[in-house]
């Protein structure tokens, strides 16, 4: 049995993780901690993998604490910048165990991971590409980590294909063109009734390809969370791994 501790256990996502861990045949809940609880209670003596689902403002400190405790961590909280990722790598370099692992996923939904992969595959064949992400209004970060990850993948694929900047004659827009991620415009929608959705628009003269992923319920993220937990528990993933696509043999 894989012993799993959940940080953020009372949150919207954390509560689903607790249920998923309890329901799976090969995992058991070790500790369920939330805001105000002491993360030092999570140790290798009681936990094989910790799952961190909180908010961006505390996620980095939580992960650094768990690394110092010698525990492998699966992170679902978004808002990770290059600088924050580098701090995780530095902490892992000084970790108590040489094989210690941290996994961070911009999105645990298999559909969203595949959409990002397909977008990167298609990107070199289109002159234009933009990303629209749509979420519930309680989401604290915008654009989503998934959309940033998708846009960065599109940009890398375009650069590898030798493509230049995308056409855009806009002179002033007051911010309506969205955040620019490595040259790719990303737009965020926050609307009551939505859960988690992403649409990638790719265009050439006379044609358009739309790639869309919809997660209608948070339960859709749980297979991805359990996959990451099992991968880290099995070993062989020392250091920092980002993106569930790394575990899908894409």
From TrEMBL:
It comes from the Bacteria. NAD(+) binds at residues 8-13, 34, 76-78, 105-108. Pathway: Amino-acid biosynthesis; L-lysine biosynthesis via DAP pathway; (S)-tetrahydrodipicolinate from L-aspartate: step 4/4. Keywords: Amino-acid biosynthesis, Cytoplasm, Diaminopimelate biosynthesis, Lysine biosynthesis, NAD, NADP, Oxidoreductase. Its EC number is 1.17.1.8. The keyword ATP-binding does not apply. Residues 113-244 form the Dihydrodipicolinate reductase C-terminal domain. It catalyses: (S)-2,3,4,5-tetrahydrodipicolinate + NAD(+) + H2O = (2S,4S)-4-hydroxy-2,3,4,5-tetrahydrodipicolinate + NADH + H(+); (S)-2,3,4,5-tetrahydrodipicolinate + NADP(+) + H2O = (2S,4S)-4-hydroxy-2,3,4,5-tetrahydrodipicolinate + NADPH + H(+). Residues 2-108 form the Dihydrodipicolinate reductase N-terminal domain. It is an enzyme of class 1 (oxidoreductase). The active site is at 135 (proton donor/acceptor), 139 (proton donor). Homotetramer. NCBIfam families: dapB. This is 4-hydroxy-tetrahydrodipicolinate reductase. It comes from Bifidobacterium samirii. The lineage of its organism: Bacteria, Bacillati, Actinomycetota, Actinomycetes, Bifidobacteriales.
């Amino acid at each position: 049995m894989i012993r799993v501790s959940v940080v953020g256990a009372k949150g919207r996502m954390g509560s689903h993780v607790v249920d998923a861990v309890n329901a799976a045949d090969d995992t058991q809940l070790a500790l369920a901690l939330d805001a105000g609880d002491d993360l030092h209670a999570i140790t290798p003596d009681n936990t094989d993998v910790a799952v961190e689902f909180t908010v961006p403002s505390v996620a980095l400190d939580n992960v650094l604490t768990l690394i110092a405790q010698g525990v492998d961590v699966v992170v679902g909280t978004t808002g990770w910048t290059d600088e924050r990722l580098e701090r995780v790598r530095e902490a892992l370099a000084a970790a108590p165990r040489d094989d210690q692992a941290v996994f961070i996923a911009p999105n645990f939904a298999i559909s969203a991971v595949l959409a990002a992969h397909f977008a990167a595959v298609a990107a070199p064949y289109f002159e234009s590409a933009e990303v629209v992400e749509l979420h519930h209004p309680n989401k604290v970060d915008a654009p989503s980590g998934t959309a940033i990850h998708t846009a960065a993948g599109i940009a890398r694929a375009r650069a590898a294909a030798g493509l230049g900047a995308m056409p855009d004659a806009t002179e002033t827009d007051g911010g309506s063109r969205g955040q620019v991620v490595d040259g790719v415009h990303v737009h965020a929608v926050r609307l009551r009734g939505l859960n988690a959705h992403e649409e990638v628009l790719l265009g050439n003269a006379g044609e358009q390809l739309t790639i869309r992923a919809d997660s209608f319920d948070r339960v859709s993220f749980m297979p991805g969370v359990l996959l990451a937990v099992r991968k880290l528990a099995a070993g062989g993933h020392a250091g920092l791994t980002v993106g569930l696509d790394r575990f899908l043999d894409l």
